[in-house]
Amino acid sequence: MEPIHVVAGVIRDVRGRILLARRTQGRDLAGLWEFPGGKIEPGETPQQALQRELREELGIEATVGGPLIAVPQHAPKALMLDVYEIKHYRNAPRGLDGQALAWVPPEKLAQYAMPPADGPVVAALLQPDRLLITPEPVDGDAWLRALEASVERHGIRRVQLRAPLFATSHPDDWRRLVEQACASLRGQGVDVWINGDAGLAREFDAGLHLRSTQLSSPAASEWSGLRLAASCHSMAELQVAAGLRCDFALLGPVKETRSHPGVVGIGWNMFRDLRAQVPVLPVYALGGLGSADIVESRRNGAQGIAAISAWNA
Ligand SMILES: Nc1nc2c([nH]c(=O)n2[C@@H]2O[C@H](COP(=O)(O)OP(=O)(O)OP(=O)(O)O)[C@@H](O)[C@H]2O)c(=O)[nH]1
Ligand SMILES: [Mg+2]
Q1: Distance of alpha carbon 20 from alpha carbon 155, whole angstroms
Q2: 277 within 8 A of 239, measured Cβ to Cβ
Q3: Which among 130, 139, 147, 185 is least surrounded, fewest beta carbons within 10 Å?
Q4: Domain Nudix hydrolase, which positions (predicted)?
């Protein structure tokens, strides 16, 4: 069955607060908060549909801006939640269907109970759209300096410290590098994640980025209290990541990569289809992608791009 195409708007007031509407009784998902909007009718463009919905539901005349993210969802209902920024609008929004309205500071959005597909929308508003994954160090000091420079040059706000070979062959050097990297990246305002090692994540108060192999035997007690993210290659792994309430997952490879030559990517259609199985979970796309792919990734339901090669040059 074709998914229902739903358009919704991010409407801000002069203080930067965002408008949520509460779904009224007697409809599906009653009582949950949502971004105002509704279903596209035959013959309408998404922008026309959104203008009409906002006129009908809120009494405003809106100018639709750029797309934020389009979240595909398979179940419980097949839909595509296609969200746009509202550039400006005339009239003060009112709940014309009797729905309650709330102006919510962005950092408080997570306190409102929303439908599953809104999870990635809120993440797209609040969290970084690019995630840098480190390469293996050759020389530790050079690795650290290069990391700081890449973060600066590419405007990176989220980093995964990953070096499985070096971490195994030089565990003490790796621990020291992780310590230095955490200190310096935090000074640059970066959210730091550590690949695979719960002990290091705990010691340096970073998130734990789970390898896909760790998802097959979840060590819930060892990970308790840590922020979790996960690398996934299949629907089953994505479902484990969602079950662990990961902050986000990585899914790929979308295209063939320099680090894995000869491994064919899954492509955007497959990416979208897989991520639609776990609507609530923010998912970065990776594999042969960089800054130029962020817009397309958002059209396919991604939080953005994760990459080694693109941002370590
Ligand atoms: N407007 C809106 N709909 C959402 C959001 N998240 C989400 O899952 N949906 C789902 O998308 C569908 C939107 O349909 P709707 O009920 O608002 O449709 P509508 O305004 O055209 O009115 P209708 O109820 O008369 O059909 C619902 O199944 C709703 O649960 C959201 O943030 N905003
Ligand atoms: Mg509606």
Answers
A1: 30
A2: yes
A3: 139
A4: 3-127
Domains of the chain from N-terminus onward: 4-113 (3.90.79.10), 130-311 (3.20.20.70)
CA of 75 to the centre of ligand 1 (A): 14
Of 62, 73, 81, the closest CA to residue 121 belongs to 81
Residue list, CB under 5 A from ion ligand 2: 38
The answer, as to whether pTM is greater than 0.90, is yes
Nearest CA to ligand 1 atom 1: 37
- 300 DSSP 8-state letter: T
Residues 20-42 have pLDDT tens digits of 999 999 888 899 999 999 999 99
Pocket test for ligand 1, best of 34, 44, 121, 125 (most atoms within 8 A of CB): 34
The alpha carbon of 39 and the centre of ligand 1 are apart by a number of angstroms equal to 7
Whether 191 lines ligand 1, by a CB cut-off of 6 Å, is no
Strands 18-22 and 283-286: unpaired
Ligand 1 centroid to Cα of residue 241, in Å, is: 26
176 lines ligand 1 (CB under 6 A): no
Tokens of 302: 């991604």
- Which pLDDT score, from 0 to 100, does residue 263 have? 80
Q: Which amino acid is at 242?
A: A
Q: What are phi and psi of 66, to 5 degrees?
A: -75, 160
Residues at the binding site for 8-oxo-dGTP are: 23, 34-37
Tens of pLDDT along 205-232?
A: 999 999 999 999 988 899 999 999 999 9
- CA nearest neighbour of 234 among 194, 281, 277: 277
Distance of alpha carbon 25 from alpha carbon 48, whole angstroms: 27
